Amino acid sequence: MATDWKEHGVKIIPAGDLDSNTPQTKGMSRAAAITTATAGAEKLWAGTVTIEPNVKTGAHHHGELESVIYIVRGHARMRWGERLEYIAEAGPGDFIYVPPFVPHQEINAASDEPLDCVLVRSGQEPVVVNLDIEPVELPEGVWRDGLHE
Predict the structure, then answer these.
(1) pTM of the complete model
(2) Residue 143: which pLDDT band, with cuts at 50, 70 and 90?
(3) The domain defined by 29-141 carries CATH number 2.60.120.260
(4) Are 107 and 57 in contact (CB under 8 A)?
(5) In the predicted model, what is the mean pLDDT of residues 109-130?
(6) Domain segments of the chain: what residues?
(7) Is the pLDDT score of 145 beyond 70?
């Protein structure tokens, strides 16, 4: 029997149809685009994240899931580690990879524009484990851009 590609092929999720009824972390606004419900996806989840200017999120991790963050607009400052002791920055067009169980915090490094990102995770479970971490005062920079010492 032939596959009905009209019903089981490409799915377009219009920007206005994203679902913000997803687990949230203080300081950010997540919206789901690609899920089992919206697209029939079984192995990945995709959506958007917006962080307002000068805002940092609460520390969190996503359990066993791998995450990829693509910076569309703005400048991200990422902190990670048991006490958020490491820090790096990313800008428009950059990708950020977050391995499973890594405690992390996203920060909008700009004072004049939102940080807009596309987020993709390796599974459908809406795992967001918000953490109560006392961060180190001076994180160690992990720079790979040749601009920072």
Answers:
(1) 0.87
(2) low
(3) no
(4) yes
(5) 92
(6) 29-141
(7) no
